[in-house]
Amino acid sequence: MINPILIPAWLEGALQPVEKLDVHLRGLRHKAVSIFVMNQGRILIQQRALHKYHTPGLWANTCCTHPHWDEPAQDCANRRLTEELGITGLNLVPRGQIEYRAKVGTEMIEHEVVDVFVSEAPNDLTIQPNPEEVNAVRWVSPGDLQRELCDTPRIFTPWLHIYMADHAQTILGSN
Questions:
Q1: What's this model's pTM, rounded to 2 decimal places?
Q2: What ranges do the domains of the chain cover?
Q3: pLDDT in tens, 27-42
Q4: Which CATH class, in words, describes the domain spanning 6-172?
Q5: Which of 63, 76, 110, 112 is catalytic?
Q6: DSSP string of the chain?
Q7: Which one of 57, 86, 114, 125 is CB 3.0 to 4.6 Å from 32, fit for a cystine?
Q8: Kind of pairing, strands 109-120 and 93-103?
Q9: 51-66, pLDDT tens digit by residue?
Q10: Mean pLDDT to the nearest integer, 123-131
Q11: 97 Cβ neighbours under 8 A, 6+ residues apart
Q12: Is 63 a catalytic residue?
């Protein structure tokens, strides 16, 4: 079932709360957060749950979501890491904002203004994926990820392609 969460979207030049599915069906510009958890140069990526309403079963960065109305981006990022992956206690470092627009299904468009966060995880990081959100997780080096994006592009989300093609240095630069 699709969660009727209201997220901050721009309508007529001002932020307004809009239902999440409506935002994607109308391709409205809206706020989002993306997190890249790193460990010894590797990125934790997730395969989205198979029942997600868009991009089910595709591989994405560690975690991404939409903040609730008036929820600070950093709080949202920490909340969602816990909800999706059971990860707590990481120091999330802001890496700026990225805006992109991409088709995420036959009738849906993501037009996001994304606050990006990166964190270096300890070797003993506990990961407990929520099966409602995540089908699988794995660690991958940036080089291997770039190769996989080229060799098997259809198994990755559009936003991961954009992040790695256009913003890898900003995101993955020195932690």
A1: 0.93
A2: 6-172
A3: 999 999 999 999 999 9
A4: alpha beta
A5: 112
A6: -----EEEEEETTEEEEEEHHHHHHHT-EEEEEEEEEEETTEEEEEEEPTT-SSSTT-EESSEEE-PPTT--HHHHHHHHHHHHH---S--PEEEEEEEEEEE-SSS-EEEEEEEEEEEEPPTT------TTTEEEEEEE-HHHHHHHHHHSGGGB-HHHHHHHHHSHHHHHS--
A7: 114
A8: antiparallel
A9: 998 999 999 999 999 9
A10: 97
A11: 113, 114, 115, 116
A12: no
**152, burial (CB in 10 Å: exposed 0-12, middle 13-18, buried 19+):** exposed
Tell me the average pLDDT of the chain.
94
Clarify whether 64 is annotated catalytic.
yes
Report pLDDT digits (tens) over 153-162: 999 999 999 9
Pairing of strands 42-48, 29-39: antiparallel
